[in-house]
Amino acid sequence: MIGTRGVPARYGGFETAVEEIGRRLADAGHEVTVYCRGERHPDRMYLGMRLVHLPAVKKKVAETLSHTALSVTHSAARRITRRGPDAALVFNAANAPLLPVLRAMRIPVATHVDGLEWKRTKWSGSGRRYYLAVERLAVRWSDALIADAVGIRDYYQEKFGAESVFIPYGAPILEGADAGKLAEAGYAPGGFHLVVARFEPENHVHLAVEGYRRSAARKPLVVVGSAPYADEYTTRVRELAGDDPRITFLGGVWDQDLLDSLYAGALTYVHGHSVGGTNPSLLRAMGAGASVLAYDVNFNREVLGEDAGRFFGDPAALAQELEAAEADPGHAADRGEEARKRAAERYVWDDIARDYERLCEDLAERRLTRRTVRPKR
């Protein structure tokens, strides 16, 4: 498993997917290697997965690709000694320029293409052109494409005529908030609204803050998250909050028990993500039974359906939803239970791991090749 920060999962959706899928593949008897960067786990094994720590250039435009370059080189070298992998899972289409290294060593590869990265405002000019180009390279050089949302699968089919394997993320199911954890942080169940997001414009943290400020909500807004390389946007968000005493910025919360309790204890969870596929933060909120107010895009409607959430497109609409939740918290709680039920039925890690197992077996047996990604017309 190549192209993420690795495990233990402390950062984002890719890392959580690697941990949840990898541990289950290891439990099923497969040898799983995860390439990692950043904070080093003290052991070479974690939950049955073998960890390989390699460095990366600490710059936005080079961090992922530099680490993946070392990872694919290491994996290819293992192949030379006949200890290499039967299949490789590469996360993020940005790593597509390095796929020929794996192909040269006859390592079949599936690329998880993620969301529509070129739409993210942090990439402009050459960065945007790069992400548009690597989508095409992922189609050209992958034996399989993995799409975590139907919307992503449809995008690759319509733009490139490319087939994808649809495998979403899973949702952890929580039965309730840890009242003690919340109390330590100064909150009570049902006593606050929540935002959890990296501070990037396409995640609409600014819209969440502006919509909340426009509302007559009495319960506080708790904002969890930050972002490397996003000082300008972070400043903008804090300026929008101004001196409103109802808004609290917690920064990154790395205590998973506290974060889970915040999801489960929130009156509403405001989800502004717009350019990804199936978003792990949204699934975690659903699994915690949070009443979701989501930015109105096809990806979020796909995950929530029609009954497990409410949608907004501007600050005024969000303000109305926040006020409605406070006016009728029982209805908001019922919507949260509907979200938890949907998550438990549709987004199950055991099922997802079995889908990845079948995918890897198909790769190893050469039942998937570049011809199955982009059939000849």
Automatic annotation (TrEMBL):
* One of the record's GO molecular function terms: glycosyltransferase activity
- Is Glycosyltransferase one of the keywords? yes
- Which residues does the UniProt record annotate as the domain Glycosyl transferase family? 194-342
Q: Which UniProt keywords apply?
A: Glycosyltransferase, Transferase
Q: Which residues form the Glycosyltransferase subfamily 4-like N-terminal domain?
A: 12-170
Family annotation (Gene3D superfamilies): Glycogen Phosphorylase B
InterPro entries hit by this protein = Glyco_trans_1 (IPR001296), Glyco_trans_4-like_N (IPR028098)
Q: Does the keyword Ligase apply?
A: no
Q: What is this protein called?
A: Glycosyltransferase family 1 protein
**Which species does the entry assign this protein to?**
Actinomadura harenae
Lineage of producing organism: Bacteria, Bacillati, Actinomycetota, Actinomycetes, Streptosporangiales
